[in-house]
Amino acid sequence: MSTTAVLSNATGKPTEELGEELDRIRAEVVAARGTDDARYIRTVIAVQRGLDTGGRAALALSLFPPAWIAGTAMLTTAKILENMELGHNILHGQWDWMGDPAIHSTTWEWDFLTPADAWKHTHNHLHHTYTNVVGLDRDLGYTILRMSPEQRWHPVHLLQPLYNALLAPVFEWGIALYDLEADAVPCGRKSVRALLGDLAGLARKAVRQAAKDYVLFPLLAGPSALPCLLGNVTANGLRNIWAHTVIFCGHFPGAVQTFSYEEAQLDGETRGQWYLRQIQGSANIEGGPLLHVLTGNLSHQIEHHVFPDLPSNRYAELAPRVREICARHGITYVSGPLWRQYASMWGRVLRHSVPHRY
């Protein structure tokens, strides 16, 4: 689905009114950040590290099935928290205002295969700047999935339901290879030398990650080495499936819009038009506080795209205000429970796997 609504909205109100209202909300939150926000992120860090330590300790005794189940569950939850609520949001600079070098976007290296600097370039810059603009936002299908009629169809897309399903349990590997931007080399947007440098960085990170999860901790488990190894593989796989689910449900439900370069009119795009494109190009997942924390508050994907550098714990309180503004401006606010967004996302994957004329 594409739209020209990035230039207008259903009420006919100027998009600059939208921009001014959202700018005021952002300024309010920036002025109000303080002790409670700092306490929140430090609490999440403490909980995540406690779960990680507890999970690894339990897996060291994982010859006993209850210990394996408990250890794998704790380690899986720790990895989800580290990736979603910590790594993703810290690397967006959401906590840079604290001035704490331990929780800063320039120093944090997450428990994920792709190096932080590579991810910040493709995600923070390319994706959040050119959200859902075909040909510029490489996250629109991650260069392998066709998610918009403006994307050229190729026979390989007939298989995209299969390889999307296979991507989920190895999602961190898919993202790491995607962040190399190897597809930019043939057209000259990236040099071979730069690609080789990025590849070396990825190899170093991959060795560290594999050594930690698949060599060091299994060896420390002694007699429980094999079940410990299986627990680590399972935790990483479940974390990857969850990350894939959250990200795809926040970007690819059927009602989320995509834009051609002409429709987006990026040359001279105003603040209000940028806000409008972010809202139309994202979707929320409805649920309770636990769901929000485990998604890194990306269940509020709309608020995250509108305010990517605001503390994630603020999104829940901002969501009703953003939704009300959208209603007054006649802007569709895509939101629904996880099962509905998941089904809608798969509908989009299936629909665009065949040529547009069908």
TrEMBL record:
Coiled-coil spans in chain: none
Superkingdom, natural source: Bacteria
Pfam families the record matches: FA_desaturase
Cross-referenced InterPro entries: FA_desaturase_dom, Fatty_acid_desaturase
Segments forming domain Fatty acid desaturase: 67-335
PANTHER family the UniProt entry points to: DELTA(5) FATTY ACID DESATURASE C-RELATED, FATTY ACID DESATURASE 2
Name listed for the protein in its UniProt record: Acyl-CoA desaturase
Organism in which the protein naturally occurs: Streptomyces dengpaensis
